[in-house]
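Course assignment 3, question 2. Fill in each field.
Student: A.L.
Task: Predict the tertiary structure for the chain below.
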Amino acid sequence: MIAIIDYGAGNLFSVKNALDYLGEPNIITADADEIRRADGLILPGVGAFSDAMNQLNGSGLVDVLREEVQNKPLLGICLGMQALFEEGVEFTKTKGLGLIPGRVDLIRFQQGESYKLPHIGWNQLKILKPSVLLKGLKTGDSVYFVHSYMAYTDPEFITAVCDYGRPVTAFVERGNVYGAQFHPEKSGEVGLEILRNFGGLVK
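Answer field:
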C-alpha cells in the first residue's frame, strides 16, 4: 500500500488517479498510523515552500516521515520534492525536512540568459546516473514541470537534470528518499513508468 500524504498542499487526486490507473494500491491520508502501516510514501505538493512546511509542521507528521523513511521509500513530487531538503528561501527562510542536504532557491540563470519564470511545460531529462525509479527511461525523455525554485545540492544526490538556461535539478535520491521536481502524474507514459517503478519498489 502506498500512502499519499495529505498535509493540505498536495496535488493529491491526480497522483491517486495515476496510481489507480496502474493498479497500485494506495490511500490518501493524514493519519500517522496509516502512514506507519504503508509500504511506501508519496509526498506531493504545489505552492510555496514556507507554506508547505508550515502545513507539514502543523500536521504533526514531520517526525513520522523522518522515522518512516528509515525503512521504506518516500517519493517527493514538485513542492514535495523541495520539502525534502534542509531549507528553502521562498518568501522567507524556512527549515525543510532535512532528508537530503541542500537548499531550495530561485532558478538563477547565467549572465545574459533570459528565461521566463515559472518554468512551465515539457522539458527533456538528462539522466546522469542509474536509478531504480528511472529504469526504462532514457536521456531525451520529456516530463512536465511547473516551478520557479530549484534544489541546489551536492551532485552525488542528483540523478537527472533538465536544461532551462542552466542545468536544473530534476530528480534526486538519497537512500530510501527520492524526489522529482517535475510531475510524474502529468508526464504521460514516461511519468507512469516512474510511478510503476515506485510501485515495484514498495512490494
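Instructor remarks: DSSP finds six helices and 13 strands in the chain. The CA atoms of residues 36 and 68 lie 7 Å apart.
Grade: pending
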